[in-house]
Amino acid sequence: MSIDRFDQINPPARLLMGPGPINADPRVLRAMSAQLVGQYDPAMTGYMNETMALYREIFQTQNQWTLLIDGTSRAAIEACLVSALSPGDKVLVPVFGRFGHLLVEISQRCGAEVHTLEIPWGQVVTAKQLEDAIVKVKPKLVATVQGDTSTTVLQPLAELGEVCQKHGVLLYVDATASIVGNELLTDAWHLDAVSCGLQKCLGGPSGSGPITLSPAFVEHVRNRRHVEAGIKAEHHTDSQGAIIRSNYFDLPMILDYWGEERLNHHTEATTMLYGARECARIVLQEGLDKCIARHQLNGEALAAGLTGMGLELYGDQSNRMNNVVGVVIPAGVAGEAVRSSMLHDFCIEIGTSFGPLQGKIWRIGTMGYNARKDAVLTTLAALENVLRRAGFNTSPGRAVDAALTVYGA
Amino acid sequence: MSIDRFDQINPPARLLMGPGPINADPRVLRAMSAQLVGQYDPAMTGYMNETMALYREIFQTQNQWTLLIDGTSRAAIEACLVSALSPGDKVLVPVFGRFGHLLVEISQRCGAEVHTLEIPWGQVVTAKQLEDAIVKVKPKLVATVQGDTSTTVLQPLAELGEVCQKHGVLLYVDATASIVGNELLTDAWHLDAVSCGLQKCLGGPSGSGPITLSPAFVEHVRNRRHVEAGIKAEHHTDSQGAIIRSNYFDLPMILDYWGEERLNHHTEATTMLYGARECARIVLQEGLDKCIARHQLNGEALAAGLTGMGLELYGDQSNRMNNVVGVVIPAGVAGEAVRSSMLHDFCIEIGTSFGPLQGKIWRIGTMGYNARKDAVLTTLAALENVLRRAGFNTSPGRAVDAALTVYGA
């Protein structure tokens, strides 16, 4: 092999307007270029503590245990579920899109007894539906997605949290695609564990998974005893002797590293921590409410532009995520050819879709650094151009005009 | 909370001369500051393929399945073990340091029946010892560490590989701390799975775990069937119906993402991939043999300087890793006070130690970007100064003189 073939990293200048990942905020990339410090350096533990404080604001919580999992958003999901679920534990999962299926599948890997509450894709679950299922199943944990990018639908959570609290059931929420682009109130809504990632509205690269854990959730996972690499004598088991099925994702051990004990676990992914910290700083400097409002404005402008072009939106628009819009691929238009022209002619990425929606909708996102007027207008103008060349009948300029109306220009 | 308290990332200018993490090569940090592209962008899949080719050189293998796990080196260990081991499978682990204990503990989490071959810390296992244990235990897999930084000892692997091949046992090796600082020949030594991380001799930040898998290892893990998030109908189970206990670390699914099928798994940690790719480029541009020789030279100079200062080295020096030296803390010297003075007066980090060696040795590393003459001499001069002020009797300048002799100056 000639390694000379492989030049330095020099990616094309994409505008990433799919369901994520999106372009990272340049400030995040600059923060990630800072040099490393040691795992227990006072500077490092200081940055860890600051990151915990910043993400308490992001998650809108007083939870002490608010920290990062060293992996992508999926790693953060798995850390929450594998630490909470013992074999045979009952889990209830509302499934209304692809990422509900993922929660089912991960729970099954944990050996849990998984019950699903199947909702048609594009709809949400009601508190009544959830309560009926809880009464029937009597689960230890309910696991749900907040914003499922596969359908663009945002699950309302306030009432679900109340129902879970009333029945003494722990509630886990995957907020990867929704956080800081949509309202999320961990404490007010009684959410026991919430996880996310950086690569959506937080404006960073994939590879770090912020989580927050309620005192009740932490007490539950800590009832399993603790082991560190044979150095301690005991294993981390629950009262039935069931060990947590992962060392890397063993939350009690990870908490002992992030907490004052500073017990050694894996070497923290320092550069990703620098990035996660900067993502939160950017959002909080703008103001969390303003950040969410910005996502709402740009999402509405995008939706208005798409309908103005004569396209049909997918799913229940009254429960649509602010930051991603599903667009029905018009009859007679080759969906993948349009995406390819957007990418190769305009360097703009829009999203395909999965499962039952494959080939039926595109998903267009406006999130994080790319929740900007220029990004939305550029995408609309390019898409209109590509669609007209693909034979779709639309009047030039109508998409951008409709979006500009939303922006108030 | 006032977020204004938290300024931009601006870490102190440490010289990291512990057992890792070490300072990242500035080239790696620059590569990681490149903007993102989409998960299936031709540029992204191109970079993934190039990364696979680069790490085949690093691992000295023809293995097709040579790729990155999105997490730290510990994540890469767990991905190999959890994908290979079904509940009840017999594993044999030689334990001669902290990281052997970690392999035991992770294997137990997988539900395996774990047998250990206990070797006194600071020594290595012989092929005869391993073969006797294999004959007795009849394991499916042997899991061992190559370079255990807890003891600074390098386990010779060529004969172990032969023994495992002879008995039809799979051999997994954790090469996190040793790779590119010490010889590692995956194919020539018949290693079936090898994992590592970036934060040691590869000169990058923690957070990406390169692995390579032999065809036999891949065939073994693929004998478990496959599921993706409920989209596919089947679960990933072996002939006994035992499911792989992790979705995130399910190697057959990850291979289908890195392979030509490009099936969706988690969103690749793009920035970490940029970093991992640059780490490998730097090593291969220097030349792998030259890189290992540079670690050997600097490790010898460091060891000579330390003994020249009148310090005693720890462990079997005939099997010492090139890139880390254990130093016995002299009687009457407060080990942690010395480390603290090194950090706060000189901004140099040297390592403490764990378990039975806690408080008994320091560990000083010279690896990756920090396997340099100036870094070694600076560390020796500073340590000599700190030790003299701590009451240790040594002649000024002898440490650096002894190191310079090794450098041939």
TrEMBL record, chains A, B:
Q: Can you tell me which residues bind substrate? A: 363
Query: SUPFAM superfamilies under this entry?
Result: PLP-dependent transferases
Q: Which residues carry this modification: N6-(pyridoxal phosphate)lysine?
A: 200
What's the protein here called?
Alanine--glyoxylate aminotransferase family protein
* GO molecular function annotations of the record: alanine-glyoxylate transaminase activity; L-serine-pyruvate transaminase activity
List, alphabetically, the Pfam families matched.
Aminotran_5 (PF00266)
| Keyword Transferase applies | yes
Keywords from UniProt, A to Z, are: Aminotransferase, Pyridoxal phosphate, Transferase
Q: Boundaries of each Aminotransferase class V domain copy?
A: 44-339
* Similarity annotation: Belongs to the class-V pyridoxal-phosphate-dependent aminotransferase family.
Cofactors that this protein relies on? pyridoxal 5'-phosphate
According to its UniProt entry, this protein's organism is Halioxenophilus aromaticivorans
